């Protein structure tokens, strides 16, 4: 197979990603965030993580596949709220989703 | 104990204990990252990218979303593909700004430490009140980086089909970790619950008209509830 990797695109993307990750220190320097913005910064992780979950489910659209994913994530979430260890809860999510996919006929 | 060093630009050494703690907590997300990496490697193999390009890309970019986006959109041409790959990660600009107060050392040292920024590490390093533990941030990213690069290589070699990944629910690991980390965040305070619910609602609404990457940026706006809610972090 011939190699047709877009090296220029890869190189530019690498530099751009590094630049975005460095944006805070490079743009703000030693200036500190105002108190109110610091509060917002403290809530960014919660908002982002919830968004990541919704996007993971939502990109499937309304479908049996999405239903299987919601089922797996839901069981894992409840398990975690009941103090099941994180790694076990993730394994539960994978197992339940796989079983639901098989049962709903949307597996392999 | 001496008084805490307040000065910026006075580099204090990174705590070894924090790095080790971060590595330990990063292992779980790393397992999920390895699967994602294998998926990227398999896609790159199918696209005929060879070996050097995907491995170099994974080692230096360390961004599943951006790399996958460049891969699937590279047929559209250099500029649209790079623009798409960059846009999917614009949220890292916001997250980097949020991190800046918690980093130490010169501007360039802090910019270097900020390279450890990936979504799970950002959440794991959060101590509450907008303060982040930079040693945990860096530590947690170490096993994830290794898993990402090794996963890419395994994906290139084995090239598991999407059917295999789906049949075993392997693609669920990463969203599951995001959900559990979201629960951890929501346990911190009522404003965090509000931010998570608002972020989820905003992402769901945005997804109806925008691509996933833009929906994530919109979700980040859920943190703005902090401007209207009284802050009652249970940091004590």
Protein model, in words:
The complex is a heterodimer of chains A (108) and B (236). Chain A is mainly α. Helices cover 76% and strands 0% of the residues of chain A. The radius of gyration of chain A is 20 Å and the shape is extended. The two termini of chain A are 27 Å apart. Chain B is mainly α. Chain B folds into two domains: 16-181, no CATH class; 188-236, no CATH class. Chain B contains 13 helices and two strands. Chain B has a two-stranded antiparallel sheet with strand order 1-2. In chain B, a hairpin with a 2-residue loop joins β1 (126-128) and β2 (131-132). Chains A and B meet through α1, α2, α3, α4 and α5 of A and α1, α2, α3, α4 and α5 of B.
- How many angstroms does the end-to-end distance of chain B come to? 20 Å
Beta-strand segment tally of chain B: 2
**Helix-strand pattern of chain B:** HHHHHHHEEHHHHHH
Structural class of chain A: mainly alpha
Give the termini distance of chain A in whole angstroms.
27 Å
Question: Roughly what fraction of the amino acids of chain B lie in strands?
Answer: under 5%
Low-confidence stretches of chain B: 1-10
User: Radius of gyration of chain A from the CA trace?
Assistant: 20 Å
Helix content of chain A: over 70%
| Tally of separate domains of chain B | 2
Shape of chain B: globular
For the biggest sheet of chain A, the summary is: none
Radius of gyration of chain B: 19 Å
Strand arrangement, major sheet of chain B: 1-2
Q: What structural class results from the helix and strand content of chain B?
A: mainly alpha
Task: Name its key features.
heterodimer; A: 108 residues; mainly alpha; 5 helices; extended; B: 236 residues; 2 domains; two-stranded antiparallel sheet; 2% strand; disordered N terminus
Structure described in brief:
With 108 residues, chain A is mainly α.
């Amino acid at each position: 197979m011939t190699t047709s990797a877009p090296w220029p695109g890869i190189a530019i993307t690498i530099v751009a990603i590094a630049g975005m990750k460095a944006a805070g220190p490079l743009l703000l320097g030693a200036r500190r965030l105002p108190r109110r913005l610091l509060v917002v910064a403290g809530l960014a992780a919660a908002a982002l993580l919830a968004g990541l979950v919704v996007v993971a489910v939502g990109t499937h659209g309304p479908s049996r596949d999405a239903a299987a994913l919601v089922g797996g994530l839901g069981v894992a979430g409840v398990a975690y709220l009941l103090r099941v260890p994180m790694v076990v809860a993730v394994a539960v999510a994978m197992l339940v989703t796989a079983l639901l996919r098989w049962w709903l006929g949307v597996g392999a | 104990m001496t008084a805490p060093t307040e000065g910026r630009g006075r580099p204090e050494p990174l705590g070894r204990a924090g790095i080790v703690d971060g590595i330990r907590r990063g292992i779980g997300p790393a397992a999920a990252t390895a699967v994602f990496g294998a998926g990227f490697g398999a896609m790159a193999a199918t696209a005929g990218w060879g070996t050097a390009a995907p491995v170099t890309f994974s080692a230096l970019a360390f961004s599943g979303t951006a790399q996958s986006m460049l891969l699937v959109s590279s047929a559209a041409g250099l500029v649209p593909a790079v623009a798409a790959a960059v846009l999917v990660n614009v949220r890292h600009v916001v997250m980097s700004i949020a991190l800046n107060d918690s980093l130490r050392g010169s501007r360039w040292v802090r910019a270097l430490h900020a390279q450890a920024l990936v979504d799970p590490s950002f959440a794991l390093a959060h101590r509450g009140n907008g303060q982040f533990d930079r040693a945990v941030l860096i530590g947690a990213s170490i096993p994830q980086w290794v898993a990402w690069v090794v996963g890419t290589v395994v994906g290139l070699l084995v090239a598991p089909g999407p059917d295999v990944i789906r049949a075993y629910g392997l693609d669920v690991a990463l969203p599951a970790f995001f959900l559990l980390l979201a629960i951890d965040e929501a346990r911190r305070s009522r404003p965090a619950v509000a931010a998570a619910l608002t972020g989820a609602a905003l992402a769901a609404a945005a997804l109806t008209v925008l691509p996933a990457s833009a929906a994530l940026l919109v979700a980040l706006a859920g943190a703005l509830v902090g401007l209207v809610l009284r802050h009652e972090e249970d940091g004590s």
